[in-house]
Structures are given as C-alpha cells and as structure tokens.
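Hello Y.,

Per our agreement to keep a running log of every chain we model this quarter, I'm adding this entry. I've kept the format consistent with earlier entries: sequence first, then predicted structure.
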Amino acid sequence: MFTEKNYRRWLRLSILVIYLIIIAGAVVRMTGSGMGCPDWPKCFGYWIPPTEEAELEFSPNTSYKKGMVIIVDEELRVARQDFFTTDSYSESNWEPYTKHDYAVFNKFHTWTEYINRLIGALGGLVVLFAAILSLQFIRTRPKLTVLTVVALLAMLIQAVIGKIVVDTLLSPVLITIHMIVALLIVGLLIYLLYEVLPATTKYRNDGRLSKVALGIIILTLVQVAMGTQVRQFIDHQVDLFGYPLSSEWLENGPIIFFIHRSFSIVLLLLHAWFIFVAMKTWNHPARSYSILAALLLITISSGVIINYFDFTLASQPIHLVVASLILGLQFYIWMRLRSARIKA
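Predicted structure for the entry above:
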C-alpha cells in the first residue's frame, strides 16, 4: 500500500474530488441553495436532512434529541436537550437559533446543499488518505509529507470557512475566499503530483517560456479576481430582485465587469501565442495545450451566454469551473516548463 505509485493515485483522486467540490459549490450558488441547510455541520439538526417540511413542524408525543431543529412562526427553534413532547408546544424546551434569522425549507435547496457537503467530506477523507500515504517519504523526502499534511489542514480550514459562510448568510466576500482556498489546494496537490512524476514529463524550453507561463498564470488570477467582483455584484442583485438571474443586470453593471469582459480577449490572444510557440518552436506534445485551448473557448463562450442570454444553459457554473480547470492546467504546464530549462 505504501508505494509511490499509490501516493500518485491518491493525489490524482484528491485533485479530481476537489474539482467535484468546486462544481458542486458552483451548482449550489447558481441555484441559490447555499442556505438549504441553515446550520452546520448538521442540516436542520439532522445528519441526514428532512425530505418534507412537515418533518420540521412541531409534533406532539414525539421524542426529540438535543440540537434538533423545528420551524415555529417562521423562525428556527433548537431543542435544548433530549425530551419527549406533550400534546402542546412548550417554549421552555426550545431555544432560538441565534446565528441568523433564515428559516425557510426548500427540499431541492436542502438536498443540493447537503450533497455539496457530502462531496466536501469525501474530499477531506481522500486528502487524509493521501497524507497517510505521504508518511512513507518522511525520512527520504520530508517536503512531500509536510506539504500533503498542509493540504489536509487547508481542507479543514475550508470546512471552517464553510461554516462561517452559512452563519453569515452567504457573505459574498467569504464565498470568494472559500473559492480561492480551493484553488490554492488544487495548486498544492498539482505541485505534489508533479514532484513524484517521472522526469520524462518535463517540457524543454530556454527558460523564457516558463517565465511567460508564470505571467499568464498571474494574469489569469487577476481575471478570476475581477470575475469574483462581478459575482459579488450579481449576488447583490439577487438580494434585491431574487431569482432567476438576468443579463440585464450587467448592462449597467460596475466598470470591473467591462474590464473583465475585455481582458478575456487579451488573455485569449496571449494564450494563442504561447501555445503556438510551445508546440511549433519547442515541439511540446499537443495534448495539454489542446485541452487548454478548448477550455479557454468554453469559458469565453459561457461568458458570452452569461452576458447576452440570461445565464442560460448552466453558463454560470460552467464559467466558474472551467476557469478553475484552466488555472490548474496552467500551473501544471508551468511546473513542467520550470524544471526543464536548457540553453537556447
């Protein structure tokens, strides 16, 4: 079990599951399901959430456990202790939920958020197993062990941030931080994976191309940061007008939106030049670069749909997820370039 090959497998699986978490989070955000579970880590006080609103109504002659939740007069009530109800509701057995005042049950939103949390828990377990496997390197390559444990700790931090996001009624700033931490975890796992890959995966170049690749990563991060600002504006519009989303909101949107939209053309041209040089001048294999080009076209196309077609065809989560895939692939290509410099 404790082999380098198995460690690589679990790193790959970890990266895959983190991207699944990003996808699930994007779906939660697109559908407005973030408060589908108004408490954390449980959901309405249950480890497996209710499927009908009737389950959250007061029930006479019923056993309740401490921490279980009901909705009374459009407010959450939490059981103070284990008890058995009488025929009538008694305020003394319950206390108000004080983190926020959201008390709406929607089966679709609840189970969408619950599945998101399950995938997050799965991600934590997968990274935990990778950390256990990394112990084989603690004497020979301690950096691998230390950084894998750091990735595990980052997953725990993500869980804490997720709790705070719920407690603050989906603070847009915290949601953005949540996303950034996920991208940092992906980058760290990709770095660890590259460190244990065979040396034949390196890309020949004269050093300048690796610097260009790093510059592209930085510019893409700037683009993503601008995109998060646009997303926060959309969240504000949702608070004002509710769902469904409307592209009309962007017509008089913040200036950052128009910069974000125009900057995508700059990034597309820069990537086209970079891919051309890598493949024609240095004869790099086409696979990674072809995938990168396809992802760029998908994210720009989804941005066009967002802008002109009222966020249809799941364009919003696609835009977000593909952008995160682009960053991961860019980082992987840069890792292959930076460690294989040769003289021109």
